[in-house]
Structure formats: C-alpha cells, structure tokens
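Batch job 17 of 40 flagged for manual review because the log was empty.
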Amino acid sequence: MAETRTVAERLTAALAPILGVDRLPVRLRAWDGSVAGPSEAPLVVLRSPQALRRLVWARDELGLARAYVAGEIDVECDLYAPFAALTARGRLAPGESPAPSLGDRLQLVRTGLELGVLGREPPPPPEEIRVRRYGRRHSRGRDAAAVSAHYDVGNDFYRLVLGPSLVYSCAVWDDPAVGLEAAQEAKLDLVCRKLALRPGSRLLDVGCGWGSLALHAAREYGATVVGITVSQEQAALARKRVAEEGLPDAVEIRVQDYRAVDDGPFDAISSIGMAEHVGRAQLPAYAATLGSLLRPGGRLLNHAISWVGESTGPNDRTFIARYVFPDGELVDLADMIGALTSGGLEVIDVEPLRQHYALTLRAWVRNLEEHWDDAVAAAGAGRARVWRLYMVASALAFEVGKLGVNQVLLHRPGGAPPPLRPDWLRAGK
C-alpha cells in the first residue's frame, strides 16, 4: 500500500521549488501538528491554512510577508536562522533569482486542493500600506503621506526600538562592545565634524527625525539648527526635547518639505537617511535644491542606503514597499554620486558604513525583542512583526553585502578650499 504523506511533508515538497531550493533548509510544522524536515534545522510553523492560501495568491515574498505579519506563519527559533538559511540558498538570496515556474506554481495549487484549504484570496493584514494609490509619486502630498505611514506609528514604539538616543539611522561602532547609545553618539559627532560645525554655524538638518542630531549640534558644537521633517509625530517630540534641553533659541523644528525651505544660506546641510524617500528621478533636483541653500564653501553630508551594484525603481509588489517604506527607492552609490554632483556640488569624501548598519539593526532587533510586550501594546502585534521582519532581513542583507550605506560629503565651490580629511578625524571639537 502506498505511503500517505503528512500535511507537513506535502507542504515541504510544494514550497521548496517556490522558494528556489531543492529541499527546504528549515523544519516545518503544519497546522495539524505534523512535522517534516531536518531535526536540527530552524523550526517554521504554519499555524493556519490561510498561510497557504496567501502563498497561492501571492507566490512571492509578499505572500510570505502577509502570512508572517498576520501570525499565520511563525518561527520557534531565532528569526535570523530561517532567513539566513533561505538567503544562502533560495529566492531570498542576494542577486537575481528566477521566479517560480508555471509547473511549480501549479504544484502549490494542487497541494492546496488536495488538502482542501484553497479559497478566495485573503484580504491583506491591516498593516499593509496603500499610499501608492494617492497622488503623483513623489509629489509633496504623497511623500508626506508615505513618510507618515512609516514614522507616525507612535513615538513610544520608536523609543522601545531605537533606545534613548532616538536615532533611526546607522550608528558608528568603534567596537561591538561599546553598545548602541555610544555608537549613535559617535555617529552624531562624526557628522558634526565632517560638516565642520563651529559656534555660530547655521545647520539645516533635512529629515531631522526626533531631533537628535540637531540637539547634538547645538549642544556640543554651538550651532544654530533648523530641523525639518514632514512627520507630525516626530516634530512634536523633537520640539519637546528641544524645550527640555533648554535650547529653543538654538534649535527650530519645522514640519516642512525640503523643497519649501527658502531661508538660506546655511553653512552646512545634513541629510541622514532621508534621500531614500526622494526617488531616483528626483535626486538631481534634490541636490540642486540643497546646493542652492548652501553658502559658497558650505558642506552637504548625504547619508543613504544603497542597493549594491544597481539602483531600484518603484516596485509596489515587495514587502518593503507595502509594509515599511512606501515609494522608497534605493540608489547605487555611483548613481547617487552622479546625481549629487550634477548641479555643481563637489565630492570631498565618501565613507561606506555597511557593516556598521548590520550591527545597528541587530541592536534594534534586540531592543524590540526584549520589550516585545510593550511594543505590541504600543503599536499592535502586526506592526511589531513588520518591524521585526524588516530589520532582521535588512541586517542579513547588510552582512552579505547586498545593501550598503554611505556617507557622501560634498561642498559648494567657493571660498577657501576644503581641508583634508584629518579635520574631522582628530579628537576634540
């Protein structure tokens, strides 16, 4: 008599080709309790047939993400483990990977039919972002809506994830043992030194977040700072922090698009983790706008994530676009430098920080997991799962070199020539 395969065994056979592997590098437990796969492998749990329905209707990363965000797929191990296994072998791996064949997709449908679990396409989890439907891409209104979708999920939630520094960009680690707060302090100080801030310097901080760089520049370097963001929640907390530190005369926080700033010139401009929201086609205009706000000899520091080896265009079918950064576009370093210099700015220095971001993301994941119950209370279980998934996946992408992050320092020609690199490497202020 033919051997009857369990639900888990059928799922394992059907999912392997969809994920681009000969055999699943994870151990799978199905909703009926059956288990299949290597005993030593990371354990992935399909808690509901709904997870399979999502994969039938969305046979790419979006189906997996929807099932995870909804709690229909879970892991009973370190989330890095199954991701690392699939990143090493399958369609989650960096680089080009062919889509599942028609035969592979039909096999997944047949498996669902055999198990009697197919049905209508499930609605996406409520955390899925639909900003793409509103207005022209990268118009001021749509950009504000896209930023709000990511950043206005609750300041209490971000405090738990980011820690007391409230810095939402790559830290600079002298050593992994220094800890996140010290590493973020080092990054803020590095930015200020690269921008050659001095008492009385006028700084424009584009995408100022919760005001951490603005506060550091005013407190430690005596700069006068204008910080701009289009997030209402960020601005509210940033203003509160400015007042608490007694710096209202030195730091102004505005809810303002960078395209609306008209009170230059500034001695320096920082743009930390903001250019990813601009859009590749708009980058030359972005650089020209910021360059026009600099005095001759003034400096711009652009700190941005890159998709290594290529630039990404708009793609609304990805997990990141639907759940994390709607309308975000990552630009390869060469394309970014080309755009930044197209309006006459000159490059002074380029510094890659890829490995530093991997350490930063792992620290944020630890914060989230250590405060999981509070994070769920602050933003909901689905939103907490979104952040955990995207930060784990991003950490691995930085570690294997698919994602990079770079600080490009430029100046507007005129005035004295820029000094050599030691002016921001030396200790002291």
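Reviewer: the log was empty due to a logging misconfiguration, but the result itself is present. The radius of gyration is 23 Å. Unflagging and moving on to job 18.
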